[in-house]
Amino acid sequence: MPATALNILKTVYGYDAFRGLQERIVEHVIAGNNAFVLMPTGGGKSLCYQIPAMARPGMGLIVSPLLALMADQVAALRQAGVRAGALNSDLPPEERRALWDDISAGNLDLLYVAPETLLSNGVLERLGRAKLSLIAIDEAHCLSQWGHDFRPSYRQLDVLVRQFPDIPRMALTATADAPTRAEILAHLQIAESDAFIAGFDRPNIRYAIAEKDTPRAQLKDFLKRHQGEAGIVYCLSKRKTEETAAWLRGEGYDALPYHAGLDKAERAANQQRFQHGEAVVMVATIAFGMGIDKPDVRFVAHIDLPASVEAYYQETGRAGRDGLPAEALMLYGAEDIALRSRFIEESNTPDERKRTERSKLDALLGLAETAGCRRQVLLAYFGDEIAPCGNCDTCAEPPTLFDGTISAQKALSCIYRTGERFGQAYIVDVLLGAENERIARFGHDQISTFGIGTEHDKTLWRAILRQLIALRLVDVDHAGHGGLSISDAGRDFLREKPTLMLRVPAPRRSRRGKAAKS
Ligand code: ADP
Ligand code: ZN
After folding, report:
1. What pTM was computed for the model?
2. How far apart are CA 80 and CA 12, in angstroms?
3. What ipTM was predicted for this assembly?
4. Which of 18, 44, 127, 364 fits 23 for a cystine, CB–CB 3.0-4.6 Å?
5. How many CA atoms lie within 13 A of 461 on its CB side?
6. For residues 369 and 473, what is the distance between their CA atoms, to the nearest angstrom?
7. What number does the ligand 1 atom closest to the CA of 22 have?
8. Ligand 1 centroid to residue 387 C-alpha, Å
9. Where is the Helicase ATP-binding domain (predicted)?
10. Interatomic CA distance for residues 115 and 139, integer angstroms
């Protein structure tokens, strides 16, 4: 008699009850069905394939992208008395032989394998002779060609569908918007009705998004609230992680850089320090991510705009996995938008893909510029509906709205009159009637929109322009100089002049902090 799922949960893991969708998924797979599991990081995906693999006759084959993670899982399972092994390229020949003996003899409950190893010579053929209980593909979003974790070898995993059509298949991930989800289902031939999508809310994370104004001062203020705690600061470039980490060390923090340019040993050492250290601040590019298993990360700060809402959700999701309060801060400015736009336009990809990327950027800007609850916008992106959360910056201090119709018209005409090629800072200077050499050289001190915006200050004009960009009334240029132009929607707006409510940027902590000190 195979042990029941609940039995395994208690005896192997020592837990009393399943969490969320776990039980339904486990039952579904034990019954021999496929499953797509979308669950946030820390949601408990591992049990969803481990338990059915043990409950069903045969060996569960788990495809996992990270050797380190695999080793941890296998060690933990073995400790609990589960017969688990990992097949990867690091394995010395004699251990490899012993492992194959176990596989052939049917002595394993779970076999972890790296995709590259799985696809290497003879492995699939030998596995064909073993009895499999299920096939689980972990971090399944890696097969999405459009995702930021794309791995070419993952793309070839559909060979498993052909070779083992009758073995239950599972695909698991923490990150998938609708298109990625559809791509995974189609590629692995898993039916929509086999999809399990778990609640994405992480109520213990407090979200805040602010204009990037004085980023170092803003970051310093944020970190002050997290003295003695571990967290991650995400930056866009390798150089910036180095510079920021060095600066933070000068400020007395135990800060380390992490990016793909460091050699393997240094990366591993830094990750170890973070994992086991008391209050390490990891200053990292997105290279730092998959495989972090630290429950007490108290904060995640983005000092550059992340790649997408999904990426943001996943990166901030590394905070507070222990369920205790954690905080996420994002700083962003118009330069970030220009840079991201440039990445998209300069990338060597088909137009269809660029369109998708642009709409992803729009969704992110929508989140950054919303006057409503951040969490509502964030979860809506994943198809979840919630009431305003009370635990984000906009819930705590609802932004003030004003009728921005006239301001928007002024900004758009100023962009138009200066030839639709100047960046945000220049447009703001012209609106404010700044006396500067560049404006004089272009003769823009002579045009009708020069100085028509003195009713607002620089900060408010910048915020207005960002919102016009987020609303897609203004486009950021493709050549990468951040030049602003009027979109078709912007032209419609100028023609029809509908009322446009805009938000006043929240007063910044850094400003208040500085004022208090001086
Ligand atoms: P994921 O792979 O989705 O990021 P894990 O499978 O690593 O998440 O699980 C996250 C943590 O939650 C682990 O420490 C795991 O042991 C714990 N966990 C999972 N399921 C349960 C449960 N039913 N009861 C208690 N703890 C659980
Ligand atoms: Zn909220």
Report:
1. 0.66
2. 6
3. 0.96
4. 18
5. 25
6. 14
7. 23
8. 27
9. 26-194
10. 11
